[in-house]
Amino acid sequence: MEAWRLIEDGPGIGSLNMATDRAILQACGEGKAPPTLRLYGWKEPTLTVGYSQDACRDVDLDRCRDFGIPVVQRPTGGKALLHDRELTYSLVAPIPHARFPASLRETFRVISEALLVSLRLLGVQEAGMAKTKGMPRQGRSPSCFSALNHCEITARDKKLIGSAQRRMSRSFLQHGSLWIDCDRSFMASLFKFDHPQAKDKNLEILERHTTTLNQVCGRNVEFAEAAQAFGRGFRQVFPDKWESGELSFYELELRDEILHRMP
Fold it and tell me: Which distant-in-sequence residues (6+ apart) come within 8 Å of 249 by Cβ?
């Protein structure tokens, strides 16, 4: 069986992070990259929007510019999210693959098992998978963390990790965000809502129904510690051969092409 690749990139700029995920997805689908787990962070606060999301409708672009916050499109679906003090994981694998079921939901569930093992290595014992969609009803919301989807990760009944998946004909990408810490009020201020009451409701949901790694652990967790735990956790759940690596020359070329096409 082909060895899995672990890439530990550390903090990067938003456009580079998203272009890298896309490049690995394309290369894997072409049979030119192995199954890859990539762990990374964000060099500066960056807001990403889902693949089909209308940023002009859902994001206060003027406020983002005022605060110097780049807005970047993700290769996956879902809603807007401010990335800052977090660990982001990205898993790419070919379709089909012996470790993953054929359906999106079941693949999501298998990856969530690895997320739970990783959290336990950080001392988070009370984490679990959401069995149904959750969060209070609030009408249309542009915010990713104001909704809870099947198999997403919660701790103490609050959303801790948000994830999204993109499936191509021969490969899939799932990436997600583990909040280490978060300024919910500032994040909510970057979104557009139909009326002020909806904005207030969104902030209430973020404050009451989401949590962070620091809150759950009761201490300040460093990025490097979280990344190390996730590397170990995924290797435990997928006990194949793993090798530390980096992007191939072909993937670097793809990444540069994708970056050049980005708005």
Answer: none
